[in-house]
# Entry
Amino acid sequence: MAPVMAMGKGTEKGYFENAFLYVTAPMIPCLEERAAWKLAEDAVGRDKEKQANCEKALEDVSDGMAREEANCPNDKAVQEGENIANDGNVQEDGKTTDEALRQTSEDLMNGDDSGMEDAGEWMERGTTPKSRLTEKKQILDAVTLNTFEALVKNFYVVDSTTMADGALLNAERFLEKDLRVNRTGEGPQILIYHTHSQEGYADEDNPEATVVGAGMELTRILEEDYGYRVLHHEDVYDKPSRNGAYSRALPEVERILEENPTIQVVIDLHRDEMPEKVRLVTEVDGKKTARFMFFNGISRTRKTGELDYLKNQWLEENLAFSFQMEKAAQEYYPGLTRKIYLKGYRYNMHVCPKTLLIELGAQNNTYDEALAACGPLASLLDHVLSGGEWMQALIP
# Structure
């Protein structure tokens, strides 16, 4: 079996940057949250001897962050400022770098019979689920998956405010989840919406070059190429401000799910933000393609622990969904995705067992690059929702 590709390591900062970092670290609690987290995280990552001091400063900053999403100003901005320091394999100035800048799903939500065959019947017939992905570019060996440390190294970026452990992240458990959707009957099976609909791409002269336009393209491909029934919800929740967007979106999403009990998959499609010199782009089938990232809110923080007021009964299923997607992406489209980002709040991921939050490219990707990513993303969705990853786990 081919080894998993190297995940890279950070590049040391220069002398003056380090001097600035250590002089300002004690003042972290007084800084604006986004800058504070980035500064402290860099210190921890580059000098383990400073970890205790930095973590104490981080604890002070955490006091102001353990609150409901609606009351957390610039929540997405905090996340965006930390993606770069942790994510591996981004493209900077046209070159790949090794770390630039450093249930089982419900039997249908309405309780109806799922109409799905069990694994035993498939095994007896020697058949596999329908999936268009057939040729793996690399195979992730068992070493990549069998320990918590290896799993985090190869699949996750854990936000510095957030607590994750082996009880939460377990590859074997995630791969045992059957995430197939029921393709029978009528009505939509997938909901795509946008908590931050105003996020746009680099084509300033094109009003359609937004994450909503990317959602339209993803909807088209899923319907025309794979036969899914998709409801694309285009309402706006981030005007006049993104503050409170998740709380404004939640009642509408819940209403849509109540009115459409056949929906089994919910996708909140976003666009990330990066420094201008960092370009999230790769090449797929000869086309420049925006890289994307799966994001999980896990309702726990390092400071507070479990956030009971943001409880998510579908957390295990959410994590299994993003993990199966990321594993398939690494094997079939190496370099297309960034590691799964884990953060401590909930981000409305509790509405459905199979919920994804996806960051598709960044503000300096072209619209064509974002649209190009929709094809591979749709094929990965079809692969997982057809049971491809689950069956591979059952029959290695």
Remarks:
- The radius of gyration is 21 Å.
- Residues 1-41, 48-129 have pLDDT under 50 and may be disordered.
- The chain has twelve helices and 14 strands.
- The longest helix spans residues 367-385.
